[in-house]
Amino acid sequence: NPVAFSPSRNTQQSEPVLNVETDDTFLFGSPQFSEADIASSSVTSQEARLPSAESPGNSPCLTPPSTGEEESCSTDVAVLHTKIKKLINEKRSNRCQICMDSYEDPLASIECWHVHCRKCWLRALSVKKLCPQCSAITPADKLRRIYL
């Protein structure tokens, strides 16, 4: 009499045991963020205003080059295009995967080791206590500043 779907208990565990009550202070230092940081982040994001536009008098005036300067200008433009492409490629390599901006203040979670900018981490944790990338449970005291 074969049993096709019999639940069996394996004495060995296939997944490692996650101990959520350990103190990570010895390994990762004291907590650098708390629930108060999340609350203050949501208040400041609501009060943020767009920067005012510059007055038209402060903007540089561009005049078309004369015929003698056209060759030097085209060379300058080509050099500037090359520099811009280089800077764009550098910026793409070090950017937050949530807001897609370059890192100003990168933070890493010691739970899942994902790195995002401070603004995105605190905004995500103010809505849900989850990593915005992998949805791992991440309290604010598990965030650490990193230097890239």
Structure report:
Residues 7-16, 55-66 have a biased composition (Polar residues). InterPro entries: E3_ubiq-ligase_RNF220-like, Znf_RING, Znf_RING/FYVE/PHD. Residues 96-135 form the RING-type domain. Helix content is 34%, strand content 7%. It is mainly α and 148 residues long. It has a domain at 38-44 and 91-148: Zinc/RING finger domain, C3HC4 (zinc finger) (Herpes Virus-1, 2-Layer Sandwich). A hairpin with a 5-residue loop joins strand 1 (106-109) and strand 2. The protein is elongated.
Percentage of residues assigned to helices? 25-40%
Global morphology: elongated
Q: Indicate the CATH topology of the domain at 38-44 and 91-148.
A: Herpes Virus-1
Give the neighbour order of strands across the main sheet. Answer: 2-1-3
Any idea what the CATH architecture of the domain at 38-44 and 91-148 is? 2-Layer Sandwich
Number of helices: 4
Tell me about the largest β-sheet.
3 strands, antiparallel
Low-confidence parts, pLDDT < 50 over ≥5 residues?
48-61
Number of strands: 3
Biased composition (Polar residues): 7-16, 55-66
Domain RING-type: 96-135
Keywords: Metal-binding, Zinc, Zinc-finger
GO biological process, one term: protein ubiquitination
